[in-house]
């Protein structure tokens, strides 16, 4: 078997002729070392932005098909130049467009999904001793139109080619020496990570760490391709993204920021099955990805749901929300703009309670108010005012001492036996029709949970910190005195009052209620309600949140089974809902059936 390597070069790494030559030299060196080499190349420098701007001169909303036709030219220019540079360096090369590589996609222009890749042509060139220079970011739809995979999509091309070719490694050459604890442009003391697991990287990328396209990590994780992110300008070793070897010793691995979030809240909703499904359906119809989805406990039969969308999707989301609430008497839609989402990610979180409390305390320390909160096993996300974002990132980075070196969990080389969960993903992957199909590996039910809701709480900095520090047993999160908080949900406030809900293991319900009672008592009418037995249903898999269809399918199945949803929490790898204890079994059966899981 020939050894294959995929090397991807981003825009700045092919920005001018000397950089193109440098990239070509890397590929030639790898070939000389005995590898078959596939290069994936992006458009030069800011070319794609320039083309977008140019299109805007004619039409503020250019036809998607024509825009894809235009944007794909950026990569076409780069591959031809790269092939010439390789010839100049004395090796054989051939440049290929997305279509010529054999990448077929669906026809969602601008964010097309890869259906299949035919590799015969590619392999012929490789076997003939040529370096294949593949255009990133593009494919061809069934009808023969050129499509693009979404901004930053060359990473996806690279990961996909590495997967189908069974490449030994996928190298991502960029303008930073690896994956850092946070974007080094925001926090100069950010530290480079030597290695990071797919799960953590997927969360980071999908929560805003722009260094890698999140769908490329989804791909690499699904197919188990080791990815190395490194600088195209130096020979530093970079960051290895692979299956995590062990749970990291630190609770937080990295931070991510999304600067352009907008909030949409649907209030006055009837608290009955089917409402969430209706909302998700309207959003999915317009391919609007919902980000932080927050539903808190209903009051007097009236429910409320909030979610965030990219600012650019706000108009579409509002139109869809209007359609959804028009049928529901008394429901209304409100929005919040100029918001940012800051997230902390770490596979070590489940073993270290108090991470959320520490993040809340840090934000309170800079007097930064938190609008919405969502959590999953390995992340905490807070929605805050955009103009506080940089300051907040720096404060949280310092609070978790992310600039300081710590022995990281060693990466695995891929030869160890798969865990049961990984085995399930592998089985599902083998049965995929299209390469980017949704992978739902498991639907599970945890009937051993209790839900606590604290309301009303004043809407000011420090409240979340007081509450969760108390529940965690104090600021130093001593696990022997505190309760283990699982999901945290905070919805938007009304008239200065907010509500916060969270879950803990049922055995810790009483303790948690007692601990939460202390700060609640200081908030005047603040009251803790406990439901000692609820069921938490989780759909887990890969890249769930970015597939608009997952939420829709989940909520449609629950509605069909007449199960009411109390709380919702979402992440890239898991969507969880809390339902009444006696509805758990019915819910899990319906959802398993919907996702075709035995
Ligand atoms: P390319 O054109 O090579 O694909 P990108 O601009 O897409 O490069 O990605 C590299 C940039 O990602 C860096 O310049 C950096 O500012 C940004 N970035 C965001 N988050 C991180 C992070 N956690 N680690 C490293 N870089 C990051
Ligand atoms: N050229 C495309 C972009 O700028 C794809 C990429 O660079 O990954 O988004
Ligand atoms: Mg990129």
TrEMBL record:
Reactions catalysed, semicolon-separated, are:
L-aspartate + ATP = 4-phospho-L-aspartate + ADP
Q: Does the keyword Membrane apply?
A: no
Q: Pinpoint the ACT domain residues.
A: 264-343, 344-430, 539-598
Q: Does the keyword Metal-binding apply?
A: no
Task: Identify which top EC class this enzyme belongs to.
Answer: transferase
The record's listing under InterPro entries reads: AceGlu_kinase-like_sf (IPR036393), ACT-like_dom_sf (IPR045865), ACT_Aspartokinase (IPR054352), ACT_dom (IPR002912), AKii-LysC-BS (IPR041740), Asp/Glu/Uridylate_kinase (IPR001048), Asp_kin_monofn (IPR005260), Asp_kinase (IPR001341)
Report the sequence similarity comment from the record: Belongs to the aspartokinase family.
Task: Identify the NCBIfam families for this entry.
Answer: asp_kin_monofn, asp_kinases, PRK06635.1-2, PRK06635.1-4, PRK07431.1
Q: What is this protein called?
A: aspartate kinase
Q: Which organism is it from?
A: Alienimonas chondri
């Amino acid at each position: 078997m020939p050894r294959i390597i995929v090397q991807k070069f981003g825009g700045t790494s092919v920005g001018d002729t000397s950089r193109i030559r440098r990239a070509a030299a890397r590929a030639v060196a790898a070939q000389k070392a005995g590898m078959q080499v596939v290069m994936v190349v992006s458009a030069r420098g800011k070319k794609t932005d320039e083309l977008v701007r140019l299109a805007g001169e004619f039409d503020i909303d250019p036809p998607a098909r024509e825009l894809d036709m235009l944007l794909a030219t950026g990569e076409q220019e780069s591959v031809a130049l790269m092939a010439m540079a390789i010839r100049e360096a004395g090796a054989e090369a051939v440049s290929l467009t997305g279509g010529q590589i054999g990448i077929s996609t669906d026809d969602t222009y601008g964010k097309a999904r890869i259906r299949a890749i035919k590799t015969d042509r590619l392999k012929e060139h490789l076997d003939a001793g040529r370096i294949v220079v593949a255009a990133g970011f593009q494919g061809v739809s069934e009808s023969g139109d050129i499509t693009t995979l979404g901004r930053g999509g060359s990473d996806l091309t690279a990961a996909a080619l590495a997967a189908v070719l069974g490449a030994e490694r996928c190298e991502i050459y960029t303008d930073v020496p690896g994956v850092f604890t946070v974007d080094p442009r925001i926090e100069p003391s950010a530290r480079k990570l030597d290695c990071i697991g797919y799960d953590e990287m997927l969360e980071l990328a999908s929560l805003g760490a722009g260094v890698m396209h999140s769908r490329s990590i989804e791909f690499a994780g699904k197919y188990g391709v080791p990815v190395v992110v490194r600088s195209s300008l130096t020979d530093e070793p970079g960051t290895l993204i692979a299956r995590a070897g062990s749970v990291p010793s630190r609770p937080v691995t990295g931070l991510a920021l999304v600067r352009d979030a907008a909030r949409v809240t649907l209030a006055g909703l009837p608290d009955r099955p089917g409402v969430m499904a209706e909302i998700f359906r309207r959003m999915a119809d317009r391919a609007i990805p919902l980000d932080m989805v927050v539903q808190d406990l209903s009051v007097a039969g009236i429910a409320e749901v909030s979610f965030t969308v990219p600012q650019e999707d706000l108009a579409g989301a509002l139109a869809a929300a209007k359609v959804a609430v028009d049928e529901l008497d008394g429901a209304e839609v409100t929005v919040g703009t100029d918001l940012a989402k800051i997230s902390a990610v770490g596979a070590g979180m489940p073993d270290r309670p108090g991470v959320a409390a520490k993040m809340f305390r840090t934000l309170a320390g800079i007097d930064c108010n938190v609008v919405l909160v969502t959590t999953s096993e390995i992340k905490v996300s807070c929605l805050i005012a955009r103009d506080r974002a940089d300051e907040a990132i720096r404060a949280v980075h310092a609070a978790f001492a992310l600039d300081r070196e710590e022995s990281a969990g060693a990466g695995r080389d891929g030869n160890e036996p798969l865990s049961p969960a990984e085995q399930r993903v592998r089985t599902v992957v083998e049965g995929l029709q299209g390469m980017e199909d949704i992978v739902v590996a498991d639907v599970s039910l945890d009937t051993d949970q209790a839900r606590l809701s604290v309301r009303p709480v004043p809407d000011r900095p420090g409240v979340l910190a007081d509450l969760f520090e108390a529940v965690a047993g104090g600021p130093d999160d001593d696990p022997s005195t505190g309760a283990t908080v699982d999901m945290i949900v905070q919805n938007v406030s009304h008239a200065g009052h907010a509500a916060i809900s969270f879950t803990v293991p049922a055995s810790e319900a009483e303790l948690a209620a007692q601990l939460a009672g202390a700060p609640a008592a200081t908030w005047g009418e603040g009251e803790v309600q406990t439901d000692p037995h609820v069921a938490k249903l989780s759909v887990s898999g890969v890249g769930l949140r970015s597939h608009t269809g997952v939420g829709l399918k989940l909520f449609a199945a629950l509605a069909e089974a007449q199960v009411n949803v109390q709380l919702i929490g979402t992440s890239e790898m898991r969507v969880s809902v809390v339902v009444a204890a006696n509805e758990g079994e019915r819910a899990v059966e319906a959802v398993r059936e919907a996702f075709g899981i035995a």
